[in-house]
Design goal:
Radius of gyration: 40 Å
Length: about 260
Amino acid sequence: MNNKKILTFTAQSVITLTIFSGVTALSLPVYAQSPTVSVTPGAQSALRSQAVIGRLKGRADAEISRRIDALNGILNKINAMKRLTVDQKTTFTNGIQSQISSLTSLKTKIDVDNDLTTLRTDVQSIVKSYRIFALYIPQVNIMSNADRALAIINEMTTISTKLQARIDAAKLAGNDTTAMQSLMTDRASKLADATTQAQNALNTVVPLTPDGYPGNKTTLLSARTMLQTVRSDLKAAESDATQIRQDLRSMKKTMATPTVTPTP
């Protein structure tokens, strides 16, 4: 190739490269370029706030769902209680349904909160304004336990009637039933006290409302103490019944054993 052709080829190549270089620079999409991004302190603060908002919303949604589930659970307990009047059940049911509706509305509000200060206030209200775990659940548990205790006392009273009939029959047969009768007296006393304590526990907590918390916390503690007494009374009463049954069985075996008269 002569010098003229070489120069011509070189000149054309330079022109072509220049043209293509220009086209490439002009037509490259934005995402293909790698500009240096500078984040201002204000932008960094905004990103951190969004991260905090996301975490707070996630926690809030979980806590609200947990409380709604708990409220639905105690609704079932209230409906199963035998000692509450229809009006009392209606009052509790309406109050709990109102709490569920309010929590559902709060969740909707929290989900669209974008201001961190407002969001924090709303999240704090889950605990401060909705005394689900502080009052409602302990209150209903006490009511449920007292209601169940009163039902058990009724069953134990029926058993007492049957035991007394057996003791009377043993006495008529000429047996000494003094010890068993003493146990029956103690059993009756324990069941009477358990009835009083259970009914008092129920009556004590029924009027409590979330607005009265934490002032009514001492009332909840007092009712729990009453239920502890109920458990002790029922345990003692059952122990009396167990001993009476054992004494009756021993007495029956003695009566069934034939007396052997020695042959002269």
